Amino acid sequence: MAINEKLKELENVRMEGSNKVFTMYLNTDPADPDQQGGEWKIHFKNGMRNFESYLKEANDKEELKNFQLVKNKVEKFIKENEQQQLKGIIVFATADEVVWYADIVQMRVENEFYWQETPELNQLKQIEETYPKTGIILVQQNEIKVIDSYLNQVEETLSYELDVEEETWRIMQGPRKANSATGLGSSNIQKDNFEARYEANQQRWYKSIAPKLDKQAKDRKWEKIFVVGEPSASKELSNQMNKQVDEVIQKNMLDHEETKVMKEVFG
């Protein structure tokens, strides 16, 4: 479920009595200097222990029982997913499981723990605002790669290549060809011929692919669109699209790993 849909659900949650809502944002980012020794495990244990100690002192057996049910379920989720840890863990939970949302996310979060009548949503709202459904379109002459991303994670990728002779864009199947940047052999003459054709036909070629990219944007419900490529290519492609492009990044990154591309886009 998309976070914006989950947010709408959680905003309407209000528990009563001893059945509270547990909220956890846990920083597990291995690149964080404060996490070098797996300190997130200590933060998690301390957070759980603090709530248990408070509830024991309050002598509220029913609420303590509810919290321990939630604690056990969260511990199980973390243990089952420990090998898939990314940068953060977000959890919303109640003992009766009316609320249960647990996710491993590819962005750093600030450690926060809550046990209260309503879920604490500020960080979740900020994440959804910063990393919405996004299309990243990488262009390099007669090749285009599309990265469909959400919450700083790659949902899917696909690539198009122009058949220069037929002037038809096709979805690429299998690994990229060694010299597919031109789609023509390796001799300098062939490259020179391609460059001349590219300069003469760039606008028309990108105009023919633009409707396919607009449809991707519509079908995938992109809230933001970035076009990344060499200056002339990225600018021309963005001009040919009907969908609004939020930013053009004039940098050739088609051959870069998706994680590096997303770091460039999101910072």
In helices, the fraction of residues equals: 40-55%
Radius of gyration over C-alpha positions, nearest whole angstrom: 24 Å
CATH fold descriptor of the largest domain: Nucleotidyltransferase, domain 5
Q: Briefly, what CATH class of the largest domain?
A: Alpha Beta
Mean of residue pLDDT values: 90
CA-CA gap between termini:
25 Å
Uncertain runs are 178-187
Textual characterization of the structure:
There is one protein chain. The chain has helices at 3-11, 39-58, 61-80, 122-130, 188-219, 231-240, 258-266, and strands at residues 21-27, 88-93, 100-105, 112-116, 134-140, 143-150, 153-163, 168-171, 224-229, 247-250. The protein starts with a helix and ends with a helix. The radius of gyration is 24 Å and the shape is elongated. It folds into 2 domains: 3-130, eRF1 domain 1 (Translation, Eukaryotic Peptide Chain Release Factor Subunit 1, Chain A), CATH 3.30.960.10; 134-266, Nucleotidyltransferase, domain 5 (2-Layer Sandwich), CATH 3.30.420. It has 267 residues and is of the alpha+beta class. Helices cover 41% and strands 24% of the residues. The chain has a 6-stranded mixed beta sheet with strand order 8-7-6-5-9-10. A 4-stranded antiparallel beta sheet has the order 3-2-1-4, with helices on one face.
